[in-house]
Amino acid sequence: MSKYKQVKVNLRPEDYDAIDREAKASEISMAELFRQAVGVGIPDRRDRNLDDTRLALLYELKKIGTNINQIARYVNTNKAIDRAALDALVGIERELKEIYRDRANRKR
After folding, report:
1. pLDDT digits over 64-79, tens only?
2. 57 near 99, Cβ under 8 Å?
3. How many Å is the Cα radius of gyration of the chain?
4. What is the SS3 assignment for 19-66?
5. Which of 28, 47, 75, 103 supports an S-S bond with 32, CB 3.0-4.6 Å?
């Protein structure tokens, strides 16, 4: 006997289709979409993969933070910002915006 309980829901066809489209767009099952909507989940391999993804993201953000600290140290030491430091900051800003867009798109 399964340790999980099943919930059945009656939906209008158009509501079912909308939920199905959302699940497919998010690349998850309808069941997972419902679990996320109510704030519960069943731990499985995907959760571990998500943890790996989060760890990789945190590692990349740490590297960006290190770069920002190095640029700040340079600016504070030289009391000026040159083109190279400015270009580095603009690059970091672009990377952060890309990460934000990726995360926002995954939540949709």
Report:
1. 877 777 877 777 787 7
2. yes
3. 22
4. HHHHHHHHCCCHHHHHHHHHCCCCCCHHHHHHHHHHHHHHHHHHHHHH
5. 28
Judged by phi (left if over 0) then psi (alpha if -120 to 50, else beta), residue 28 lies in beta
Question: Of 39, 31, 26, 34, nearest to 107 (Cα)?
Answer: 26
Lowest mean pLDDT among 44-58, 65-79, 93-107: 44-58
Q: Is 78 helix (H, G, I), strand (E, B) or coil?
A: helix
The mean pLDDT value for 47-74 works out to 74
Under a CB-based contact definition with an 8 Å cutoff, are residues 28 and 37 in contact? no
pLDDT band at 37 (very low <50, low <70, confident <90, very high): confident
For the entire predicted model, the pTM comes to 0.39
**Tokens of residue 20, six digits:** 């199905």
